[in-house]
Each structure stands twice: as C-alpha cells, then as structure tokens.
Amino acid sequence: AAPFRLEDYRAPAFTIDTVALDFQLDPPATRVTATLSIRANTEEARKGRLELIGDEIVLKGLKLDGVAVPASHYIATPSLLTLTDVPKGPFTLEIETIVDPAANTKLMGLYRTSGTYCTQCEAEGFRRITYFLDRPDVLAVYTTRLEAEKSDAPILLANGNPVESGDIPGTDRHFAIWHDPFPKPSYLFAMVAGDLGVITDRFTTMSGRDVELRIYCEHGKEARCTYAMDALKRSMKWDEDVFGLEYDLDIFVIVAVSDFNMGAMENKGLNVFNDKYVLADPDAATDADYANVEGVIAHEYFHNWTGNRITCRDWFQLCLKEGLTVFRDQEFSSDMRSRAVKRIADVRTLQARQFPEDGGPLAHPVRPEIYHEISNFYTPTVYEKGAEVVRMLKSILGPDDFRKGMDLYVKRHDGDAATIEDFLASFADATGVDLSQFKLWYSQAGTPQIVARGAYDEAAKSYKLTLTQSLAATPGQSQKRPMHMPIRFGLIGPNGDDMDYASVSGGRVDRDIIHLTEASQTLVFEGVGGRPVPSLLRGFSAPVRLAIDISASDLLFQARTDTDPFNRWQAVQTLAMRNLVAGTAEQIAGRAPKVEPALIDALGGVLDNDTLEPAFRAQVLQLPSEADIARELGQDVDPEAIAAARTALRLAISTGLGDRLERHYARLSGETDFHPDATSAGRRALRNTLLDLRLARRSPDAIAAALTHFEAATNMTDRLAALATITQAALPERRAVLDAFHDRYANDALVLDKWLTLEATVPAPDTLDRVKALLKHPSYSPNNPNRVRALVGSFAGANQTQFNRADGAGYDFLADFALDLDKRNPQTTARLLVSFRSWRALEPVRRARAEAALRRIAAAKDLSPDTLDIVTRTLA
Ligand code: HT7
Ligand code: ZN
C-alpha cells in the first residue's frame, strides 16, 4: 500500500458535529448503531461522495435522514463505506454494524478481556467499531448508550458524564447513557462494560468543582488500587499548581484491564489501563512498579489537556501530545521524587531505547513525514526524544517564558486539532524568541554528536572551548543542518566550585546555557582564575552524544565535586565505559583486562559519601549495561566478549571495594516496614545494588547472603532483587529459588510476568530451551501481551548473549514466534521484532544469521501491515 505523507495532508471534506452510539452488547455479535450529524465543508464534498473508513466490520443497515439508503447509492466493503449521493446540506446518517468482540485478538476496536468488554481506539481502532471519518482532526460531541445483560455486565461506562441508566423492562438487560460535552476525535472514544470491582474518591478542583474519581479493576484487587488513586489526586493537583490546568468533567474513571497492547489510554474521562500500571501492593509490586504506576497515571491524566482538549491535527503530529505529555509526567515524577535520580533514570532509558533507534534502520524524525503503519510510530523517538525537545525548549527560554508559551498554546488552541507549527508559534509569539532553527529537532532524525575541546591559557587567564556538532545520515535524510542546542555548563575550579569569568565571546551564553547554533563554535571565556574542568551538558541538557577529551583524573575530580549530580553520575559512567570498551577489546584479543584505579576510587568515593542520597549512590554503582556497551562500540559487536568484560569489571570493582560493600549493606539492613516513598525506595535500591556487587565475587558468603536476602525479604523489591542477582549470576541455586518464587505467586499473573522475565534473561546456554518450554507452561498465555512481552520480549530485548547466540538459534526462535503471533496480534508482533533493530552492528557471523531470520519473515505470506513495515524498514 502507498505510504501516508505529511505533505499530502488535506483538511477533512466533511465535518461530523455529533455522534450518537448505541451498543447492544453481545460477545460474538455486538450490534452498533451510529447516528452521525454530518455536513460538507467543500464544494467537492457537496458533489455528494462520502467515504467512511471501516476495518473488519459488517454493515447491517444504512439510513440517511431516517430513510434506508438504496443499494445503488452506496458500496460497503469491510474497510470502506462509500455513499455516492449525500445531500449538499447537513444530514443525518445512521449506520448499523455488527462486530465480534470475542474473536478480536488484535485488541484494537471493541474486544473482550477477562470477560469485560473494552475498547482501544487510538490510533485507528474506532473504524473497527463503525464506519467513520477516523482521523484526529474530525472532532465531534459523543453520546453513548450501552445495553447489556445485567449479570454479564453490571457496570456500563463510556466517555463523559453519566446521564441516565435503568433496566429494560421485561428482560434481564439494562442500559446506561453517557454524554461527553467536549468535542473529540474518534481515537478518544471509549466504552467498558463488565463485572468489576471499584474504589472511589473525590477531588475538588482549584475553582471549587467537585469531581468523582473511580478506579475499576477485577473483583478482589480493589485494595491494590489505592496507590493509583493517590497518584491520580496528586497529578490533578500538580497540573493545577504547575500549569494552571484544571479537570473539566464531573467524573474521572480509570479501568484496569489485563489484555492491553500498550501501557494505558487517555480516552476522555475514561482512561483504560494495562493493569500492571494500576495495581500495586508491597508483596507484589517493586519500587519501580510503584514509580511506573505513578508516572503512567500522571501521563494519562495530563493528556486531558495535552492530547484531549488540544489534540493532533494528524498522526504525523503525534509528538505534539506524546512528547509534551512525557515531559510533563517526567516533571511531575521529579517533583514527587528526587529530581537528580529521576533525570538519571530517564536518560538511561533514553539512551537504551531511543539512541539505538536513532542510530539504526528504524530512525525517524520526532515528527515523522512518512509512514505506512501508524501504530509502529509510538516509538521512543516520538515519546522520549519528543520530551527531550520540549525540555530543551524550556532550557532555551527559561522557566518563566516557557510557562508563558504554554499558557498561550492552551489559550489559543483549546478545542483544536493542532500542529507542531502551532505549538512552536505559541512559544515564539509569547516570548519573541526565533525558534526557526530549533524546529529542526522535529524534522532531523539521528543523534547529534558534539565534540568538545578545551584549552586553558594560564598567562592570559582565558579558557577556550570549541564545540563542534555533527549529525550522521539517517534513512531518507542524507544532508543535515546544524541545530540549536542548549548546552548547560559550568567551569569547575580547583576547589570544586564553579568558577566565575569576566566575559565570554564567540557565542551566546545565558546564565549557565551555551546556545550552540553553528556547526562549530569557539567560546573564549576571559578572566578565568585557573585551569577549569569543564562540566558540559549538565542534566543532559540536549539528547546528544558528547565526546570530550578529558583525563581519568579530571573525571574522578568531577565525580567528587561537580555541583550537578547528573554530571557526577556521568563522570563515573564515562570512566566505566572507557574500561568496558577497552576490556571488550582485551577479551577478543585474549588478553587479561586492566582496571582503571580512578574508577574504583570514584565508585568508592560516592559509596562512602553519606551526604549523597542512597538512590543516587545506587545509580552511580550500576555499570553501563551490555546493550549500552554494544551501542558505544557501534560495530562488530560480539555480545559474549562484552558480557565477559562486564563480568570481569564487576569482579574487579567488587574486590576493589572489598568489605565496604558488606559494611554499607549491613548499615542499610533491618528495615521491615514498607513505604513506597522515594527515600525508602532509595535505601532499598542501594542495599540491593550492594548485594549484587558482592555477588560478583561469587564467594560462598556472597551466595549465602543473596539466598538469605531472598528468604528474608519482606517486600517484592527486595525479593525480586535477590532473585535477579541469583539468576543473572546464573548460579546453580537459581532453579530452586525460581521455582519457589513461581509457587508462591502461582495465582498472580503480574508477579508471574516478573518470573517469566527472570527465566528469559538468565545468561546461560540452556535459556532458549527453557523459554521454548515455558511457552507451554500453564502460567503463560499466548494471547496476553503482558505474558508475551515478559517471556519473549525479555528474551529478545534483554538477554544479549542468548538472543544473539552465535548459532542464530535465538533469531530463528523469534522469527518463528513472530510469524505465529502475527496472525493474532500484529501490533505486539511488530514491537517484538524491534529487537532486531541493531542487527547491522553485529559481528559478521551473527549479522548474517540475523539477516537470514529477518529475510525469512519478510518472505512469509500474509504478513500484517505492521510486521511487514517493521521488517522491511529493518532490512532496508
Ligand atoms: N496514547 C496512548 C497510545 C496507545 C496506543 C497506540 C496504539 C495501539 C494501542 C495503544 N494503546 C495506547 C498511550 C499514551 O501514550 O498515553
Ligand atoms: Zn501518551
């Protein structure tokens, strides 16, 4: 099929003002009646041809202004309804369709999950419910009537406010009517019907309106929803305090379901969540789970303004809502927790997920300009890099002007389907700042590289800093232009404080921001009292790779003194990465690895520094992952050599830090009460990191400590950390602990996902066979995306050595699995295959085997558009 192109955008020919939906719910045959009030917008449209999009639906009836449309006036296929003779003036179209929720394994449109009816309409699911102008710039006011058997679905929910409900006399059916007064695109439509448990609360908005809050879940899991409810109320308050944005309906409903393709969905007034982002209690959820629940609840809630009240004109503008909303949820979590630790975690995720995308065949701009299948563009680039672009905008403008721009954006575009141009114009107009060069961040794919070179002139007391930016070619983009990058910086003086300087020339510097706008710029700082250690890209102020010629001793100094905690962490990571890259080369050459003493000193200094928060110390002590090292190497990647180098360095660090690990571990032990707050979580994180480092020695006492840690754990964070340590070390004891864990949580699917992930990520040669065996395990379910991602997704995405087995068996397994799953759930299949994205960077033997597996998939008949798109682009 032909691709969609941004340049081809045309405004819709018809407007749909209101939509009345009636659902007669029945598992294999739900009857949907959609009554649309429609009017033509253009002369062309007034000629009478109307095309409405469908997907796998069956038309049962069609009336125009109450009269059945003659067969000669329309053509209906499962994917298109064409009316050839609609009136010039406004008219009403009534469309009756039949859909089969029980057979819907794609989880798009109307489907069943654990006996509950549920919808997912973003991006193109509404067309699986009824024929429609299923595009985000068609905004309508929806009224939804649901009718179902009372015993099957006692709860009937839809967008907006409840209007009416009651029994259908003489039957065992009942109904509910919901009305959403805010015009919205079809992708924000939702309904849920089922037998569910609920918790309720209330929130009073800043203007004094009372809002009812409800969270629905499977019966028996209500107590696990209280943290999500708390996070929701904090999100509502934060959006008022920080952005002045208030909730607008009388009720806000969240429903947790167990079958869901993504994390959650921001449907107006009726958010539907993957239950893993709602349910949390200390016995079943880790600290990371709590943080995720908080972040995803906030993200979906924040969409109410950035996404719903202001939506996207077309799907090319996806980052308009997603990048901005990720930025907002990251800021919220930073305010709720430790800003520094959150920033490090977010940058780690960005580098692990987005950088490889930007550096491989699937690279695309934050605002793509072409796509075949939009569901493949819910990517780390659109989401996480999109958030980085908003963060850079804030750095360039400063917080006050950023807020002015946001206020103007909301004021101007409330009720609109907007574009990136609209967004940037709001900031430019509110502040007078020219953002035309900055806009390149939305159109140029790839991760820029900045090379920094500094020289101090003792006699002149001046410091010269040359910054050079470059951006490699990416698919479809061979020429790139220099971008506007905010480089947050400091010049660290001999006592560790940032030094003052008298003046600077060679570029614009505002407070602590260098505005890098040229391909190369040399800034000269005059009146600098001594040789500085440059601290560049503080807080990771731009999503770039920074190459800087800095000595190990300066990095050690920076790790000890930098006033920017992010760059303290970065200094240690840089030291570690240099060791790991060198260590990998030694492994390949068969030489013994050498360890940089400055790294052990830096780690020890951070470990012993009680003024630093434990969560931060834990982050510093965690080495770059095997995937990070592979990315840094960029070519001829040998995952076995990388893993061996990393193991050797961990051993050297563990030995180098010696009994300090035990001492700090003991100091942190003894807490039995569980609180999910960031401070308590930080102490657990540090203790668990220390346990893991101890086990790098594989000494009998370290093994015993890990087993005791597992047995004595009073919460899931500690229990899982011990289990991960034991399994990652591939200890023979792992089978017994994994089995014990499984048996303890045999009835808890979300916890069993953790178990499946641990099984799939053991770095041992028998893991692939174990994964294959687990596909038949009763705790695994082939149609549930969480189970699939936990087992197969973790194997392919997080087990570097075993997925990338030299014999290619890991690749063959994923190919076979994908070909089978593609028949049932194309979206989940396409996402799994992203694990192949860096195949070209592998050493030749593995590269050839990965390519053969990809080609086998590409050659298969009847591939879904989703899978075909990913495989084709990966091979291009
Ligand atoms: N806006 C939501 C996107 C989403 C989605 C997209 C494609 C297929 C299934 C989906 N479920 C949810 C999620 C979000 O960013 O908030
Ligand atoms: Zn989102």
Q: Which CATH architecture of the largest domain would you pick?
A: Sandwich
DSSP summary: helix tally:
27
Mean pLDDT: 98
What ligands can be seen in this structure? (3S)-3-amino-4-(1H-indol-3-yl)butanoic acid, zinc ion
Q: What is the name of the CATH superfamily of the largest domain?
A: tricorn interacting facor f3 domain
In the residues, how many domains can be counted? 5
Distance between the ends: 17 Å
Instruction: Provide the low-confidence segments as ranges.
Output: none
Percent of residues in beta strands? Answer: 15-25%
Assign a percent range to the helix content.
40-55%
Could you name the CATH class of the largest domain? Mainly Beta
Annotated CATH topology of the largest domain: Immunoglobulin-like
Tally the beta strands.
33
Given helix and strand content, the structural type is alpha+beta
Please outline the major beta sheet.
Answer: 8 strands, mixed
What gross morphology would you assign?
globular
Q: Which features does this protein show?
A:
876 residues, alpha+beta, Zincin-like, Neutral Protease, domain 2, eight-stranded mixed sheet, 40% helix, binds (3S)-3-amino-4-(1H-indol-3-yl)butanoic acid, binds zinc ion
